[in-house]
Amino acid sequence: MTAGEHFSDGLGEGSVFDIGRSGALVLDAVRRGGSVARSDLTERTPLSQQSVHRLAEDLLEKGFLRLEAPKIAGRGKPSPRLALEPQGACGIGIAIDTEEVRVAVTNITGDILHLATLNVDPNDPERVREETADCVSEIIAGLGLDLRRIAGVGISMQGYRRKPGLAFVPPPKIAAWRDRDVAEIFDGAFAFPMMAENNATLGAEAENWVGAGRRFDNFAYLSINLGFGGGVVINGAPYLGHHMNAAEISSIYTPEEQERRPALRTLIAMLREEGRDIGSVTALKQRYDPSWPEIDRWIERVTPALDQMLRAMTGILDPAAIVFGGEAPRDLRVRLARAASPRTVDEINLPFPGPELLISEIETDPNVLGAALLPIRKRLFSATPGFQA
């Protein structure tokens, strides 16, 4: 089982998610457009007008789209507008981080319907399986979710892959997950399709759904957490790469440079050296004080490595934007972006065009939102390019 496989939902034949590749193209065109006149869909897809009309009717009947009032512009009868039906589908996300395990439910438009933090050691895979299975059952019952419209369960894991699949090499704090197939650990825990992905890629997916992706089809994402990771969105979908480790950005640093990258573990260490009772990312977020002098010292320390990464992303990917995201407090991400100097000049001193530097506006932890969106992406938008196995 890999992140790119197509899954059945185990709920019998005739699943509502069986919309086909052409249906996925229409649905994604509406998602990216927000509210789209039906007559405009032929320009947004490679499909004929007759096919678009038939597919739109099918998606309306299945409850993934809804009709909105047409906008009157000029003469002639205005075309009905189509938008995603928020309750058409939902996804369940589980984020396994170094400090805690969170469970979230989102609808098809990316609204968080429920978010919970579990009282479980994230470094105990079998216990995490038991607790999340119980939690998911309680959430489904509590929200009264329609089982037929649950796309599946997405799991956010930290770390990289040694080979394509669902086994990761996570940070030492959750070493019990190392090289263990996530699908095997959670086998039988849920009555829905299960899939997993790297946390930074899922942060990029969340940003793609409800943030920068609304403006840009191509952007890079910085996941500033205890470590420092990244994600890439190309042509409107996250890109994984051949080994499924695309944007594993910390791998470009030497061991000496690792200590000067913008990872929160070094900021936490600096704060503790000054006697501040900050021992985790959670504590940092809860007690963050922008007046701490250690913050400016840390930013000065990590900015050269940050600039190195921004220049590399700009030169290799040429993204429209680079988003500062992750679990770092917003003020810290704003100050990092202001301190950065990613743009360079060419040999005749002309400025080299570069991306916009944006601050993610996602209020909840982005990786758990991305995890909940992952099965929705896979079940309904699998015809879109980029998020491949």
UniProtKB/TrEMBL annotation:
A GO molecular-function annotation: N-acylmannosamine kinase activity
InterPro entries: ATPase_NBD, HTH_MarR-typ, ROK, WH-like_DNA-bd_sf, WH_DNA-bd_sf
Gene3D superfamilies linked: 3.30.420.40, Winged helix-like DNA-binding domain superfamily/Winged helix DNA-binding domain
GO biological process: N-acetylneuraminate catabolic process
Domain spans labelled HTH marR-type: 22-70
Pfam family for this entry, one: ROK
Matches recorded under SUPFAM superfamilies: Actin-like ATPase domain (SSF53067), Winged helix' DNA-binding domain (SSF46785)
Highest rank taxon of the organism: Bacteria
Protein's recorded name: ROK family transcriptional regulator
Organism annotation: Martelella lutilitoris
